[in-house]
Structures are given as C-alpha cells and as structure tokens.
Amino acid sequence: MASRGHNHLVIMAGGVGSRFWPMSTPECPKQFIDVLGTGRTFIQMTVDRFRGVVEPENVWVVTSQRYADIVRQQLPEVPASNVLLEPCRRNTAPCIAYVAWRIKSMDPKANLVVAPSDHIVTDREEFRRVVTDALDFTQQGDAIVTLGMKPTRPETGYGYIQADLSSPSLRNKSVFRVDSFKEKPDLKLAQQYIRRKEYFWNSGIFVWNVNTIVNSLRIYAPEISEIFEKLLPIYGTPQEQERINVEFPKCKNISIDYAILEKADEIFVMPADFGWSDLGTWGSLITLANKDAQGNAVVGQNVSLYDTNGCMVHTTEERRVVIQGLKNCIVAEKDNTLLICQLSEEQRIKDWMEA
Amino acid sequence: MASRGHNHLVIMAGGVGSRFWPMSTPECPKQFIDVLGTGRTFIQMTVDRFRGVVEPENVWVVTSQRYADIVRQQLPEVPASNVLLEPCRRNTAPCIAYVAWRIKSMDPKANLVVAPSDHIVTDREEFRRVVTDALDFTQQGDAIVTLGMKPTRPETGYGYIQADLSSPSLRNKSVFRVDSFKEKPDLKLAQQYIRRKEYFWNSGIFVWNVNTIVNSLRIYAPEISEIFEKLLPIYGTPQEQERINVEFPKCKNISIDYAILEKADEIFVMPADFGWSDLGTWGSLITLANKDAQGNAVVGQNVSLYDTNGCMVHTTEERRVVIQGLKNCIVAEKDNTLLICQLSEEQRIKDWMEA
Q1: What ipTM describes this predicted complex?
Q2: Which of A14, B12, B95, B153 is the least buried, fewest Cβ under 10 Å from its Cβ?
Q3: pTM
Q4: A122-179: pLDDT as tens digits
Q5: Residue B98 near residue B112, CB atoms below 8 Å
Q6: Residues of A with CB under 8 A from a CB of B
Q7: DSSP class of residue B269?
Q8: What is the Cα–Cα distance from B37 to B298, expressed in whole angstroms?
Q9: Smallest Cβ distance to B325: which of A322, A333, A345?
Q10: Can you tell me the distance from the alpha carbon of B90 to that of B71, in angstroms, rounded to the nearest whole number?
C-alpha cells in the first residue's frame, strides 16, 4: 500500500469553459458551478472524491489569478498556500511543472494524481480503488500512469489511448504500456476504436511520483523545468507569487501531452470504469442529470414545465421560470444573460457568446 | 368649439393586468410598462395623446394607493393633487363618482373624457379630432358619448355597441343614439356583428360633462353618489385622503357600464377609427408591434435571434438574450421571472402566474 501521507492531488482549474455559456462565463467558469444542481460545484466534487485517498493539506489547486477568491471560498479546507496562481495561461505543461517543483520542495517523496477540475465521476468507491491502486504502482517506481476509461460509445469528443494489452505490468496486472495517444477521432474512426478492446478514453487523469515528473521535465521540457527548479529557494516564501509572475510568462505554451506523455517511455494506462464523463456539452449534461418523466433535466428551485420534453433547464436558485411547449431545447440563464436554443445547435453557443 | 380650459381627462389606472405576466405584475402592472419598447409607458402615451386637448393641470389619474409613487414618477407634469388614490378596488362606478365630484368641486363647467390607461392608439391626430368633436358635443348638452371603434375583425375579446344609425343627432351628424351594449360575444355572434354596419367595439372611452355625470349618478347610483357629494367640503383639503379611506370602501363594487351607461337615456356613440387597440393579449401586442423580417417583435436592447419566427420577446433593457430555433413563442422576463410559452397557449398565463 502507498503511504497516504505522501499522496498529493493536483487539480488543474484554470479553464475558462465557454461551451456552457451563459451558465459558465469567463468570470465564473464551469468548474466553479453547481452544474448538476447537487449543491456542490465541479471542483468541490473533485476534492470530495479524493477523500480518504489524499489528506486535505496535500490538495493543490493551480488556477488563474482571477479565480483565486472563488477557489478559496469554495475549498476552505485546502490551505491557502496550496492554491497556486498562474499569471497567464500557458497550457498544462508549465502548470504541472510549477506545482511539481513546488511540491518536491516540501515533500521529495510525493506521489501525485493530476486531475482536471470539471469532470464527473459517478462511482466514487470504484474511483478511489483505482486511484489508490495507481498511486501504489507509481510509488514503487518510475512510471506515468494514465487512467483509461472503457468506452461505451463511439464518442468523437474525447481523445483515445491505445494500450498494449499483450504485456501487462509484472507489478500490477491491470496496468499496461501505452502504444499511442490518439487525437479526437471522427465518427468512423471512433467506431473502429470501440470495436477493438485496446482503445480507452483518455480521462486526463495522470498518476506519477514527483521525481518521475521532474525527471521527465528535465529530459523532455528542460527550458520549462529550469524555470521552476531555479525558484526552489523561494517556494513558500512571500516572494513566490512575485517571482512566478515574472517567470511563468516565459514558459512555452504547451500541453503536458505533447511535452511529455507522447514522448516518455514509461507510460502506462490503467483501464477503469467508474462512471467518468468529461461534461463538455449540454447534451452530455442532460444524459447524466436526473430527468423527469418527460426527459427534462432541471437545475433550479422554482421551475415549472408544461408540455415540455427533452429540455435542459439551468437557472439560478432564486429565479421563477415557467416554460410551456418546448422540445429538446436548452434554457440557461445567469446574471443578466438568457440563452434559449435547440440542443442540436449547441456547438454554436461559443459563437453567440463571442458575438 | 369647446373651451379647452374646461376640458378634463380622467385616466383610470387601477388595473392589475395579469395577462401580460411576467412583464406585468401586481407591483407594476401593464399601464406603467413600456410594452412596445417606445420609451413611453402606456399611461404616459395616454397622457401624450391628449396634448393640445386637455391642459396638464386638468389631467386626473385615479389609481390604487400602491401605485401612487409610480404615477407621480411617470407623470411629473400632472399635479400631485390630481392623483386620486383608491384605498381598495370597487370597479369603475365609484372611481368615476369620486373623480366627478372632486372635479365638480373645482370646476362646475368641467367637460370630461374618461379613458383607460392601457390602450393603444396609433393615429393620434385623428384621435384628437374625434375627442375634440365629442367634447364639443357634450359641452353643449346633457349627453354621454361613447367612442365606438369600427371593427376590423370578429374580435371576441371586446364588448360591442349597437348604434341606431337611422337617426343621427341633429347637433352632430356623426353622433348616434346607442341601441344597446353587447357583452363580449362568441365567435359566431361576433361574425354576425361585423357583417352589420351598426356594431362598434366599445373602446371604454366616455365623454360627458360633469353635470351629466353627477346627475346620472344621483338618478342611477344614488347610494354611491351621496358618499362623494357629502365630501364636497373636504376635497382639496388635507383631510381628503383620510376621509376617502373611510368612505370609499362603503361603495358598492359595480362598473360604470352596469350602473349608468346601460340605464341612462342620453347615451350616444361616436363611431371612430384611430387605430385603437385594447391590448389584452400578447397576440394582439405582436400584431401591433414593429416586427423584423421573420415576424418577430422584440422589446429589449440586447436580443439576438437565430432561426426564430413569429416570436414576441420582451425583456428588460440591461439583459442579454440569445434565442435560437423558436417559433411562435412568447419569451418574457422581468425581475426574477422568466416565461417561455407558445403564443397559442397564452390564455394559460394567468393560471401560471397564480400557480
């Protein structure tokens, strides 16, 4: 068993999620919203599901400076010094490099789960079992473990991981080497993928120990790694933010997938099935949400529906909403914005938001 | 010509208009709303169209106490002492009795137009011509003149006036005796009415001089008339409101139509055509409003429509609204309420409001 005291959770929470506008806005994006109406926001649910796996003082959040107050407010149990603030957006590689060096400065034996802040997991118990198993694996050696989701449909909205199922790890028979990472496929390709057993959805959740991370960075992204290694003396001091504000923008804008995962040798996938969803669209949200007998998913305290089917209604608590005669529509409102559109046209939302 | 100095306008503004919910609410009903997005509310447009016919100091508003502040704010040109406040709702007969005795106490030669506060008139010039003609008629004698609108469709939402076209008044050939008042008909009856020339829509606009009013009240509604005649000594004094609060609730709840118009002898109708509408429904509103090429009527500063036809959108100024894929719907929002429904189902709005 992994020693829980060295387990760390890194939540990447810098996204500006535009697909759920107007519920999600640049001022308060998706990860900070109670999308499903459960009483907990996405980032809160993310922390919740690691309870018992990672101690609260080992939870780290990397986010944009503009979201600092929201994070502190929504996650009071996370120490303020564990909320790392990016002065600008540089994709995931600089984000992970910063937090990895920062954690290493405090806990050289740290073992990390890196996770997005806005995903859904419905089977929390199975999730904990899988993550604990993966942490156990990475604690014992130099490995990057990605969690691969067993696909249930030819989804074109996710990337895929191709596993080499022929040779499971000797240390853990449910861990396999990655053959390749696949970009989001078109429908035809996705259909081919799901017919074969070795393809899994890329959940964006990685498990590795801190030495594996910094060594990988030194090899594959040395110019990024140097920036954060150089700052070792000032981590945890009052100068940290000031120096980060100067140094962070110098980083190349690159994802951890391109910078490391697709290049490194010790890349593994642990297939899993814990009701995962990267809720990227209103359509996927309505699939997961509780629905009434007419197939409507409603978030809001005072919503009355008449002659209405297959609609997704998302409104703020205090608002009274009466809807009659709508079919397969999105009705979402927040602050001073109201959106009504057909679910089938939701890919246009981003354009409307920017119009 | 009538002497303009004795012309008075009485605006009845006590209605709580529930058919336009949520745009119209008991806190701020229809007459105080800029329904058409012109920058003027219904009651303001009502005053506007009498400009040049009635002096501002002769404009009277009878409304509920709860709307006193709204009236003063929307009609700053009307003297505060001309805003008469009903302590409770008693229909139109007590309302008109109060204001008639009140005006008579100041101007025994007063000549009055009594008008609702929430109607539409599109041809203001013709309106002024007709009203001036009617005032001229009632100044010269004991007559109650109703304005009868030439019907353009078999409307079942209006009452009708049957005129005796065979004998125009000797004093004014465009004024006729009323044969009878007709309640809102069903469609079949309405179709019969409009095939015959002697039926007109009852606009609810009456013209009569103040002595005709008080004499009619004394004859046909003596118990109401006495209440307000008794108060003659205190009109215009600081005691007025206090006494009205005590006496007004004693009045019978009855409309001026039942109390007087249907009983009196000297009842006339002046047929007219000045683009009148008693905008009782969203459907009639969309008929009158300016529409885009897709037949949408939009009130709101920041509304974007895509693939949307025949819709009525009414929103507050500061709100951003994006609508895609709606047909023949009402989208209305105000304060913390949002209504979306099919135009064909608008008769259910009142139920939803009360639900």
Answers
A1: 0.73
A2: B153
A3: 0.74
A4: 899 999 999 999 999 999 899 999 999 999 889 888 999 999 999 899 999 999 999 9
A5: no
A6: 22, 304, 306-307, 315, 318-326, 329, 331, 333, 336-342, 345, 348, 352, 355
A7: E
A8: 8
A9: A345
A10: 19
